[in-house]
Design goal:
Layout lengths: L1 H20 L3 E9 L5 E11 L2 E9 L11 E8 L2 E7 L38 H15 L5 E2 L26 H4 L18 H9 L11 H12 L2
Parallel strand pairs: 5-6
Antiparallel strand pairs: 1-2, 2-3, 3-4, 4-5
Organism: Peredibacter starrii
Protein name: Cytochrome c domain-containing protein
């Protein structure tokens, strides 16, 4: 009897935990701003569906409007160390794989060189939300290096997923960054490149990166020269 009660309790606990983790989170982004320097709002939902992780993001550049069905909609899938990005027509908070793809508004790779990236709200609405974001960010961290499978064949519109060319794809080899951003290692995140410069600059200036300590003056100069194309 006790074993049965324990098994039922454990089962219900797993269901409750999954429901908790897959609940949508709506927040003001600590990273993104509009062209007019206004707040960008995101709604992010993680799901495990059809053998893959599905990350759905609906985004508003026009304030916290109530009709999220009108917000921009992006999806990132992760399966077997491969990731794929979708810009979809605005709609409900779900992904079937059959939705209409629309042109990218910006090059996703500029901010997402390795699939999903850490969720960073300006503030948390509750302790539960803080715990949820922490667990989801841990999930993202544990992916390691991902291979992107977006290609010219499935591109819609003129904005590419990733800019081509030697200069844009020059890898950043600053040792402080390569502790995570390289191709080898359990938690490696793949190399950053010059086209990630805007994101790199933001992360360093806002002390999100590097995660342990600050860059020396010499390292800061190296990074600036790299982003300036030297």
């Amino acid at each position: 009897m006790k074993i049965a009660i324990f098994a039922i309790t454990l089962f219900l606990g797993v269901i409750a935990s999954y429901k908790f983790l897959t609940s949508p989170i709506t927040f003001a982004s600590a990273e993104s701003r509009t062209a007019e320097d206004a707040i960008v709002y995101n709604e992010i939902t993680w799901q495990w569906k059809d053998g893959q992780d599905v990350w759905i993001m609906r985004q508003s550049h026009e304030g916290l409007t109530p009709k999220k069905e009108n917000w921009d909609k992006l999806v990132i899938t992760v399966k077997n160390e491969k990731t794929r990005f979708y810009q979809l027509a605005p709609g409900v908070n779900e992904f079937t794989g059959k939705e209409k793809e629309v042109p990218f508004k910006v090059s996703c790779f500029m901010c997402h060189p390795n699939g999903p990236r850490a969720i960073r709200p300006m503030e948390f609405n509750s302790l539960g939300e803080k715990i949820q974001v922490g667990l989801l960010n841990l999930r993202i961290k544990l992916y390691g290096k991902l291979e992107n499978i977006n290609s010219a064949q499935n591109q819609v519109g003129d904005v590419p997923f990733r800019h081509e060319g030697k200069i844009s794809n020059t890898p950043l080899t600053l040792p402080a960054c390569m502790k995570c951003h390289q191709d080898q290692g359990l938690f490696s995140r793949g190399f950053l490149t010059r086209q990630n410069g805007i994101t790199i600059d933001f992360m360093v200036k806002n002390t999100h990166m590097p995660p342990f300590g600050d860059l020396s003056q010499k390292e800061q100069k190296y990074l600036k020269d790299f982003m300036d194309g030297f």
